[in-house]
Amino acid sequence: MNALTVETRGPVLLATINRIDAHNALNAEVLDGLAEAVDRAESDPNVRALVITGAGEKAFCAGADLKEVSTLDADAAQVKMRRGQSIMAAIENAEVPIIAAVNGLALGGGFELALACHFTVLSERASLGLPEVGLGLIPGYGGTQRLPRAVGDATALHLILTGETLKAQRAFELGITPVPPTAPEEVVDTALSIADRIAAQGPNAVRSVLRAVRADRAISPAALATETGLISLAIVGDESSEGIAAFLEKRAPNFGAASAKSDD
């Protein structure tokens, strides 16, 4: 079974992350599938928009696969983070509109994926957050850059440093989504309807708007490099070892012990 499926819905592609048992967590196969979906959307003149969603009713994308992350050394972590960042950048800089239909949990890399899309449509059941600090990690797919741009520095810092999860209505109030939260069974259809409406507009004009809006909003490569370096160090650190172990063992982390060990 493919980890990401792509369907043609008239002038719109619908890409579905299909790892229900793992809450649609991002692994290498999903990232590769996303890259291929973006390439297909941009290269096919009959495609005017791309909608990304998650299979099932519980999760859009629950972020990185922590079991996979826990096996990485520093070099492998850098490669993985750069790969993820490049795919998020490809989504953000795409020449066709890309809409996230967030049908449930969007945590960590899942929220970063939604932030990279041009805009989102949220289910009333959607929950969004960057909980990485609770695992001894930091966001690594551009979240430290895109969330402040979306909601402002102070609100972004509050959300990242506390790991707070946003409910759909609060995300709407903060401007993370431009449309009120919709019924869970309607979120994909709502996103497809918006995509169809955009697809009916002049394609060159749509492309020009996307270029104009992002003209002075490009994320600094230096900022992303800083994020990559810091997350790569965090992945091989004692705090993340403790944080991930605690998460997998369903217990509270003991960061005091991990920090003391790091200081020795």
Automatic annotation (TrEMBL):
It holds the Pfam family ECH_1. PROSITE patterns: ENOYL_COA_HYDRATASE. It comes from the Bacteria. One of its GO terms (molecular function) is enoyl-CoA hydratase activity. The keyword Lyase applies. CDD domains: crotonase-like (cd06558). It catalyses: a (3S)-3-hydroxyacyl-CoA = a (2E)-enoyl-CoA + H2O; a 4-saturated-(3S)-3-hydroxyacyl-CoA = a (3E)-enoyl-CoA + H2O. Belongs to the enoyl-CoA hydratase/isomerase family. This is enoyl-CoA hydratase. It comes from Brevibacterium linens. The lineage of its organism: Bacteria, Bacillati, Actinomycetota, Actinomycetes, Micrococcales.
